[in-house]
Every structure is written in structure tokens, then in C-alpha cells.
Amino acid sequence: MEKRKAYAYYEERSGRELQVEMGKRLNFPSHLHGELELFLVQSGCVCVGIDGEFRELKAGELAVVFPNTVHSYQCREADSRYMMAVCGTSLMGDYFPSLTQCRPRRPYLCGKALDPDVLYALHSLYRCRCTGADSSISRALLHLILAHVLPELSLEPAPEPKAMDLTSSVVRYIMRNFRQPLSLEHIAKELGVSKYHLSHVFSARLHTSFREYVNALRLDCARDLLAATELSMLEVSMESGFDSLRTFNRVFQERFHGFRRGRGGGGGGGEPVPQKPHRRPVGRTGRAAAQRRITPCALGKKAMALEVF
């Protein structure tokens, strides 16, 4: 499996315990959330990334995404079709410990036919969503799927189960407050942990430093403001959370060197703005904005930029 660097955001789900959709030509950027996700390729080929490892899945192959795991989808063929089921914690039942305290060595079921019972249960979940069936039926179907699938995934204990929950908490906190002055000490106090433990979570789970992480989020916001408004550079730097124009100019040029502000839309000629996004994937899905950059400014509380490996 190929391993590569990717950008991701935290997706705040709607609160429904079961979301199932079918579609085609899916391109969804790297993201994570607190629910279990089952992704079945029905036709064509889709490149699926889970925790920085990427594999091309073909028709009849399944990806199992555990809660709080970074994942992405990119269509490889125009006729690719898929089914996706996102299941909340209340549906997991007795499987909750396995799904939250373990991680699969192989999160894909490919190279052999899926058990017919699994395919039947997946399609039945879709019918449950369409008909509004009782949650007990959805729970029973999910448990049938997991009973067949989990033994094939070679589960092993997650290195730090509590750290995964803390990761979600700190991501959401920074997402909501990145425009304000932030320090590792302040966030650690808000979350009731030591700053040293929080720093370890950043390096171990997000593979970056606290400062690099916050700056990446602020830079995405600044890029959107430059492209869509006529704010001055000073106003953009303050609005996106930087404490000085000098700091903003330095980190902006490091990431978006060679970009300039255009005359259309953003106005304010003579000031830099990216002409194209950096390496952030662009997705077109029913759950996110179609054919546009997915950034913190664009999605507000639904988006969270971070660098993962």
C-alpha cells in the first residue's frame, strides 16, 4: 500500500445514528469523524486512503474505517459507483470496545468475494435509511456485518485509545477558536491535561507540532479571505488569527510562494493570493460543497485542516 502525506479536516456529523448513501464519481478529501464508516465499491475503481495508506479498490471490495481515523476517497474511473454507511456509537453495541480501542492492520477486504450475508446486510441498511426503520433493525444488521468483517481485519490494540478521543477534542477546540490567541498551555488547561501530554498527542497522532497545525488552519482561512474579499493584508492577517503582519507574511510566503492577488473577486490589486490551492484535495460530495475548495472559512465549524502522514 502506498503511503503519502495528506491534508484532512474534522467532519462534524449531523447527529443521525445511521447515514447511508449510494452514488458515483466520489471525490472526498481527507477527513475524520467519531463514527464507524463502511465503504463498498459497487463498480469501477476508487482510491481509498486510511491513515495515510492508499489502496485502489474495485467492485465488490470493502473498506472499514474505524472512528477517528483519517480517510479519503478519489474516483479512478468515470463509472465508479459506491455505497457508504456511517454508523453512530449507539449502533455499535458490544462491538464498541473493539472499534474504539483497537485498530485494524488491514482495513480493507479485497481480493476475494464478500460474504453474501455482508452484501445483503449493507443493502438492507440502505433500505432502513430510506424507510426510517426502527434503529434495532439497523443495529442487528450492523452487528451481522461486523461479525463477518472484524475477524478478517487482524485487529490489534490501538497504541493510545484515550489519545484518539483527546485528538478529536483538541481538533474541535482549535477549529472553533483558531482566530483567537491560542497557546498549548491554554488549550491543555481547557481540556484538563498537561501541556506535555498534549504536545505528545500532536506529534504521535497528527505528526506535526502545535504551532504548525494552527498556522496551517489560519493560512487556509487567509487564502479564502484574500480570494473572496477586498480586505487589506493587515486585515486578513488579523481576521485569520495571526498576531502580526510580519508573521503572516513570512508563513504565507513559505506555503504559497509565487501566488499573487487577482483583480477579480478579491480586488485590492498588488497583494498576494494563491492562484490555485496547495496540495489540499478537492471533493465533490453530497455532504460538502460541490466543486470548490473545502477550507475552514468555507465550511466554518465543519472543517479542520491538519497535516497527517
Topology:
Layout: E1 2-3, E2 6-10, E3 18-24, E4 27-32, E5 36-43, E6 45-50, E7 53-58, E8 62-65, E9 71-75, E10 81-87, H1 96-101, E11 102-104, E12 108-109, H2 116-131, H3 135-149, E13 155-157, H4 161-177, H5 184-191, H6 195-206, H7 210-228, H8 233-239, H9 245-256, H10 296-299, E14 306-308
Parallel strand pairs: 2-4
Antiparallel strand pairs: 1-7, 2-14, 3-10, 4-9, 5-8, 5-10, 6-7, 6-9, 8-12, 11-13
Helix pairs in contact: 2-3, 4-6, 5-6
Task: Please explain how this structure is put together.
- The structure is a single chain.
- The protein is an alpha+beta fold.
- It has ten helices and 14 strands.
- The strands form three sheets. It has a seven-stranded mixed sheet. The protein has a five-stranded antiparallel sheet with strand order 3-10-5-8-12, covered by helices on one side. It has a two-stranded antiparallel sheet with strand order 11-13.
- Helix 2 runs antiparallel to helix 3, helix 4 (161-177) crosses helix 6 and helix 5 (184-191) crosses helix 6.
- It starts with a strand and ends with a strand.
